[in-house]
Design a protein that fits this description.
Layout lengths: L9 E4 L1 H5 L9 H13 L4 E7 L11 H7 L8 E6 L2 H9 L4 E7 L2 H8 L3 H17 L3 E7 L12 H14 L3 E6 L6 H11 L8 E5 L6 H10 L4 E4 L19 H10 L8 H16 L4
Parallel strand pairs: 1-2, 1-8, 2-3, 3-4, 4-5, 5-6, 6-7, 7-8
Helix pairs in contact: 2-3, 2-11, 6-7, 8-9, 9-10
């Protein structure tokens, strides 16, 4: 493995969105703000705070606008982000002056229909339009591909499909590209191969990985990403999370494990593991409590 001793790793914490959306409990706005504040104290520079989506479909993300409004966002060293799926979510983001949004489309037709109720082409057209509009509003945009490494329903996904979608989103003005192993099926060699292909379209510093640990390969895939030059990763404290539209799609790679791996390999994360574990204990206490 190459020597990366002087490299910094950017970890985006997604437990307040991807983590909570797959839990049966619905936390209050106050509880979610407490979680995000605890994560910010741990030194995380990027935190995904929620999603502006239909609360009937994902009730765990209801009132994400109130979460956004209730946060102390004066910390200049933290980037708070919001996931959106459609024009309604974009309107909310514009009204609240959100500075960075994320939007994902699926490389699997079946998953796209289940996740967004849109065929892939329509979902991609929709995303490209939102990316253009966000760029015109001065936002930065992470545009990502779900099921980039394979699908629970459809099996392997050809890299040509992923690359075509990435190219369309880059042309629309995406400032970062996310590759998501939504169903947790990726293997390290597949991660390296996909990064090699997408890396021909965008510089590696623009590319991030969103990895799940469904089959126990999550940390191996993180290391494969590091070895391939990726320096941006999504993770979730305690490994909570998963896609509610895919059976058995268990949690994200645990943030604390990613930090431990990266630092063992000589990277710098600037994250306090002790405070991170405090944040995890807060999340666990809320999820284990019956007082909602």
């Amino acid at each position: 493995m190459a020597n990366f001793n002087d490299a910094n790793i950017i970890i985006q914490e997604v437990s307040a969105r991807d983590g909570l959306q797959n839990e049966p409990q619905i936390l209050s706005v106050y509880q979610r703000i407490q979680i995000i504040d605890a994560l910010s104290r741990a030194g995380l520079s990027r935190i995904q705070i929620g999603a502006f989506v239909n609360p009937r479909l994902v009730p765990q993300m209801a009132d994400s606008d109130l979460v956004w409004s209730g946060l102390d966002r004066n910390k200049k060293d933290i980037r708070y982000t919001v996931l959106i799926l459609n024009d309604r979510g974009m309107e909310t983001a514009l009204n609240l002056k959100v500075e960075h949004i994320e939007i994902y489309v699926s490389a699997s037709e079946t998953h796209s229909l289940k996740n967004s109720h849109m065929e892939m082409k329509k979902a991609l057209d929709n995303a490209a339009g939102i990316v253009r509009r966000a760029g015109q509003a001065g936002m930065s945009i992470t545009a990502g591909i779900m099921c980039a490494f394979g699908c629970y329903y459809e099996g392997p996904i050809h890299s040509d499909i992923v690359c075509a979608m990435v190219s369309r989103l880059l042309d629309a003005g995406a400032t970062e590209i996310g590759l998501a192993d939504t169903t947790g099926v990726a293997k390290p060699e597949e991660v390296k191969s996909m990064i090699s292909q997408v890396g021909k379209l965008a510089p590696l510093e623009m590319i991030g990985l969103h990895l799940h640990d469904t089959r126990g390969c999550g940390l191996q895939n993180v290391e494969a990403g590091l070895d391939s030059g990726i320096r941006k990763f999504d993770s979730s404290v305690g490994g909570i999370g998963g896609c509610p539209f895919i059976p058995g799609a268990t949690g994200n790679v645990p943030t604390e494990k990613v930090v431990e791996l990266a630092e063992r390999l000589g990277f710098k994360t600037f994250i306090d593991l002790g405070k991170l574990r405090i944040a995890e204990s807060i999340i666990r206490s809320f999820l284990d409590s019956s007082n909602y």
